[in-house]
Amino acid sequence: MLIPFEDKQIYVECHGEGAPIVVLNGIMMSTPSWKPFIPALSAQNTLILLDLLDQGQSSRMAEAYDITIQADVVKCVLDALKIDSTSLVGISYGASVAMNFALKYPRHVDKMVLFNCVPYTSPWLADIGKSWQLARVSPEAYYHATIPIIYSTDFYNQNLNWMSARKDFLTQHVFNNQDFLDAMDRLIDSAATHDVRDGLENIVAKTLIVGGNEDYLTPLPQQKYIYERIPGAKLVIIEGCGHAAMYEQPDVFTSLPVGFINCVSTVL
Amino acid sequence: MLIPFEDKQIYVECHGEGAPIVVLNGIMMSTPSWKPFIPALSAQNTLILLDLLDQGQSSRMAEAYDITIQADVVKCVLDALKIDSTSLVGISYGASVAMNFALKYPRHVDKMVLFNCVPYTSPWLADIGKSWQLARVSPEAYYHATIPIIYSTDFYNQNLNWMSARKDFLTQHVFNNQDFLDAMDRLIDSAATHDVRDGLENIVAKTLIVGGNEDYLTPLPQQKYIYERIPGAKLVIIEGCGHAAMYEQPDVFTSLPVGFINCVSTVL
Amino acid sequence: MLIPFEDKQIYVECHGEGAPIVVLNGIMMSTPSWKPFIPALSAQNTLILLDLLDQGQSSRMAEAYDITIQADVVKCVLDALKIDSTSLVGISYGASVAMNFALKYPRHVDKMVLFNCVPYTSPWLADIGKSWQLARVSPEAYYHATIPIIYSTDFYNQNLNWMSARKDFLTQHVFNNQDFLDAMDRLIDSAATHDVRDGLENIVAKTLIVGGNEDYLTPLPQQKYIYERIPGAKLVIIEGCGHAAMYEQPDVFTSLPVGFINCVSTVL
Amino acid sequence: MLIPFEDKQIYVECHGEGAPIVVLNGIMMSTPSWKPFIPALSAQNTLILLDLLDQGQSSRMAEAYDITIQADVVKCVLDALKIDSTSLVGISYGASVAMNFALKYPRHVDKMVLFNCVPYTSPWLADIGKSWQLARVSPEAYYHATIPIIYSTDFYNQNLNWMSARKDFLTQHVFNNQDFLDAMDRLIDSAATHDVRDGLENIVAKTLIVGGNEDYLTPLPQQKYIYERIPGAKLVIIEGCGHAAMYEQPDVFTSLPVGFINCVSTVL
To answer: Which domain holds residue D51?
Structure first.
């Protein structure tokens, strides 16, 4: 369905029944990315998938914007769906949106699971982002700039056929799409505005942070920084996993939020 | 309930409904240890708690035995409960029993979650075990030999009142109980017979291994050894967590098996 | 001085006196890169700096070549200097050359210190290499593709002025030099031929491997692979350090080889 | 030689020539422990070995004392040897003494190398210390309480003959010596007074911290705490190494201080 947000439209899908889980996409993702994950994530919950601004079937933006607008998008979607409080699962850029949401709308978030998150887009990460923007010269160059780095070395080397198919798909259908690349440029610029370092200690949502010890784009010290500051947050590390946890270890990827969000609390 | 095993009796409790999960105790534990965890672990599943031989309300053994007998105990309990196949959650000694069960009765185990596990009781670990046996001189000595090492430094330092209450309880009600200490001596000796190094590559159960980077008793390299050998096994590491994961981080402790065991598989 | 190698010339500098240490450059480096390090590295040793083929003041190659030719270059330099046996310090590409040398000329290497090394150029690393080759569209693009990734996030963020000066220098004097970029393309292709996985267990040189836990280009598991296979090798990890250890932590960078190479052995 | 300290005597040995290095023993050590290390550590330096109070051939104390008195011992030794400024190498307890010295006598310390150090003796570590004191019931019990935990699992398992010889020596000649055990009790009590958390940011000595990722007695987070607070400090981690770095990896153990202390500084 399409939900109006100011003069834009937000594409939203709901699957299943139960306590709501809103999944917030990584920067390159869109709702179809989640197709194989719907059974696992909607078995006990109402799974809400959505395209953020400049993603998938949601509206394109005309100019630069701050990442906090994406938190407003999420709030707008919740209002339209008449959901007062939800759990959030954010991946990378989506984890940034989740933390911004938790700071701006603290009453409306229950639990959060943050995959491969950063407290802010540091100059280092911003300069990696620029390397992506500078790689628009060819689909091949865009692939090489953006894709290998988000996989662990071992996964990439052990799944060459799968990676090759992915390269074909991305270079033939995505990285040659100027509308996609324009939107990516704006998304990258919006990511560069992300900075919740001063707010982490005020987050009240029960938070599970998930990192991979082979994440080269948002390395573990970033997640430890957040873990040490969000009160009561927990951190688990997936061994041998890179930035693209959902593709490398799909069952661990789904198990963690499904378990963390649905488990009743244990008091010793 | 009591279930006969040869000339012994095994104490068993069942809670909840759904696909079965058998929890296998750590060496010092018994079914009452799980009281606070029952709501979380039985919400979606039939939770089966049991005391292994020489634990809690199960029979004491007269002489030395091999840890594989505990796998037979588990099989006997499953038969009595008419359960053909189950998921197993094993903690430390219980994880050793789980792996032995998975090797001896591969058709009867579905998924396994192994907390703080070792592939064998190495001379190093056996000599730590002897330090426990040599500390029977006083409840105080037994506490100091066995308890601090199983907690992460930070948890221990930040929960001194809780640790102090635990010390009072253990020294006044447990570590002064000669029957308990005799049973512990035999359990430690049986642990020393644990060695599944040659069998790990044959385990077919879908396995999640959980370690803590502050586990000083069964340090992470042990779990990595197992992770690299059980086909398809996954490993997650709880940041800042010691050997006693269930007490240090109860919500992460329950989330992991509840999520892993109940999630439907995702195929990319 | 220039030393002939087949129909090529190899640029070599010697500094100081004592047992020889040959330093083997990373892929983008050349002898001037070592200027600030000469006092530390030549205080107790004859420090031999050299440009490998396609580096600095050594000859350019006309066509593709295997990395093993660089090992022959090193042997040729040793012969010309009448050095029978030497210690080797290799950085990244230079560490690959060092391992190839140790396999081909085992009698001529004493100790080795390998910084940020890989056992082979995996498809993952080769595809990162291609991202560099595809970034020749502008000096800016080349900088963004190659430089941020070789620094740890924290070092980069905390040394923005230094990085900015480096960016100016590299974009204005190096990455706009087509001769340099052509040579880089060939060096990258030669790196892709590196594979000593089958030979590591035959290396007899006393080896110290040095990694950084923030190395995103040659991550730690690569060094652990080598550490587990070279007999008697040791591995130390510099906390918080990226791929460019020499620039991030120059005093640790020099201390490790100077200490390891010059210390007399301790026998317990 | 014996150097008077108040009404006590301090045993001191000097070896070699050059800039001084004072080695500060771990809690169970004494000057003979260093015999095999003298060639490596004195090749370029005046190596000063000493027994702290209650160690080896230095005086026994009559009652409880604060660890800071050991810093005064070191200062007294330096005065007697007419050394104005020295480098310090401290192991565990000796690293605590070194940090206390650096805070009390900042003008008199040049570089410091701290192996397996802690910022304070936390309740957790103090309770491990008590387990040692409670294990005086037999040499066997003392061995099992104190020795396995200070070795990495792998080293212990792979050097069983060496460990066995060590056990024989310790149980027959050391752990049955009541004078030694009385002194150990006091040393453990003095260690419990160690706390430099508030002073670390004031330390001006150039400091290298060395940890082992298999150190179960002073685990890595302790060294990271110190690393993050001593200005300019560096941290290197020896892979696979436990608390007893000097016995597990003697050549790395000597290389690190010899390299760090003697290298001239590199300025980029």
So the answer is: 2-120+195-262
- Walking along chain C (268 residues) 10 residues at a time, the average pLDDT comes out as 97 98 98 98 98 98 97 98 98 98 98 98 98 97 98 98 97 97 98 98 98 98 98 98 97 98 94
Interface test with B, best of A252, A255, A258 (most B CBs within 10 A): A255
Q: Determine, yes or no, domain membership for A156.
A: no
Helix (H) and strand (E) counts for chain A? Answer: 11, 8
Q: Does residue B215 lie within any of the structural domains?
A: yes
- The domain total for chain B is 1
Average pLDDT, chain A: 98
Distance from B255 to chain D by nearest Cα, in Å? 26
Q: What is the pLDDT of residue A53?
A: 98
CATH of the domain at A233: 3.40.50.1820
Phi, psi of C2, deg, nearest 5:
-110, 130
**Domain assignment present for C7:** yes
Question: Which of C131, C138, C157 lies nearest to residue A124, judging by beta carbons?
Answer: C157
Residue-level pLDDT at A251:
98
Amino acid at A206: K
Neighbour tally for A170: CB within 10 Å: 18
CB contacts, 8 Å: C142 with chain A: none
Report how many Cβ contacts below 8 Å link chain A to chain B.
Answer: 124
Residue type for A32, please?
P
pTM: 0.97
* Closest to D91 measured CA to CA, from D156, D34, D145: D34
Q: Do D264 and C234 touch (CB under 8 A)?
A: no
Q: Helices A123-133 and A178-191 sit at what angle, rounded to 10 degrees?
A: 170
| pLDDT tens-place string over residues D159-175 | 999 999 999 999 999 99
Residues in chain B within 8 Å Cβ distance of D117 = none
| Interatomic CA distance for residues D189 and D129, integer angstroms | 8
Residues of chain B positioned with their CB less than 8 A from the CB of A224: 239
Q: Does some domain include residue B67? A: yes
Listed as ranges, residues in chain B with pLDDT below 70 are none
Residue C38: predicted pLDDT: 98
Query: Any bridge partners for residue A111, and if so which?
Result: A206
Question: Residue A120: its pLDDT value, please?
Answer: 98
The pair phi, psi for residue B17, each rounded to 5°, is -135, 160
Average pLDDT, chain D: 98
The neighbour count for residue A225, using CB atoms within 10 Å, is 16
A155-209 pLDDT, tens per residue? 999 999 999 999 999 999 999 999 999 999 999 999 999 999 999 999 999 999 9
Rounded Cα distance between B118 and B120, Å, is: 5
Question: Quick count: other Cβ atoms within 10 Å of Cβ B63?
Answer: 6
Structure tokens at D18: 């050059």
Tokens 């000083």 belong to residue:
B216
pLDDT tens sequence across A111-159: 999 999 999 999 999 999 999 999 999 999 999 999 999 999 999 999 9
* Cβ–Cβ below 8 Å for D266 and C252: no
Partner-chain contact A234 B252, CB within 8 Å:
yes
Q: Which of C198, C141, C191, C190 is nearest to C170 (CA)?
A: C141
Is the backbone of residue B25 left (phi > 0), alpha (psi -120 to 50) or beta?
beta
Residues contacting C79, CB < 8 A, separation 6+: none
Contact: chain C with chain B (3+ CB pairs below 8 Å): no
CA–CA min distance A216, chain B (Å): 18
Q: Do C251 and D260 touch (CB under 8 A)?
A: yes
Which chains does C contact via 3+ CB–CB distances below 8 A? A, D
pLDDT tens-digit map of C101-145: 999 999 999 999 999 999 999 999 999 999 999 999 999 999 999
Compute the distance between CA of residue C206 and CA of residue C223 in angstroms, rounded to an integer.
15
Yes or no: say if C67 and C96 are a contact pair by the CB < 8 Å rule: yes
